[in-house]
């Protein structure tokens, strides 16, 4: 969902930038390393602790790597003012690609792990079971972010009244609980369509903002469908997809 911090998680443990990682939303797992050692990093705005086997609790910091040893644990408590976080380990996890991808679509049951999320008590294997030369790395990520989200006009921009366009750009919308990996449903001032609330199905891209008949916008995300028939008022630019997903 957040391509930028996914890529950074792999870079910080010297992986191929497309290596598989664990993505979590809002709350992550409690994980214990049963054998060997591993170099890991967590990226995002995440609160987590490292529970050492000698009972020492170490407060973790995002965007810097740590050495985890036999019987140490990672307790990923919650994301903070964001949605998604990422856990990467040096060498990656032992998961098989499906259609040349490590991604999982749980609604379609497609991807590694039979298209399912990892469940409590499940064993997750890593490719590299021992770290020979641990090198500390970290970056200052948060201070590099621009908070604004930029858009361009959608293909059906002129379907909407001038009042609706002004509302879309100037008024506040709430992210609803109906949001998921397919899209983010917003709630706020209704956007009045003056032409047609349904159109012939057209191709869709990530970041497009559709407006169904109820007037509440939907921003499409990574698992969106390939076609759709709602008018499109705008498209979030590619560079700002990651920030949008974290709202």
SS element count, helices: 3
Overall residue-averaged pLDDT value: 94
State the end-to-end CA separation. Answer: 12 Å
CATH architecture of the largest domain: Sandwich
- For the largest beta sheet, what order do the strands appear in spatially? 9-16-13-14-11-10
Largest sheet: 6 strands, antiparallel
Q: What structural class do you assign from the helix and strand content?
A: mainly beta
- The level 1 CATH classification of the largest domain is Mainly Beta
CATH topology of the largest domain: Jelly Rolls
* Cα gyration radius (Å): 21 Å
Report the uncertain regions. Answer: none
- How many domains in all? 2
State the order of secondary-structure elements, H for helix, E for strand. Answer: HEEEEEEEEEHEEEEEEEH
Q: What portion of residues belong to β-strands?
A: 25-35%
Number of strands: 16
Helical content (DSSP H or I, runs of 4+): under 10%
* Shape, per Cα inertia axes: elongated
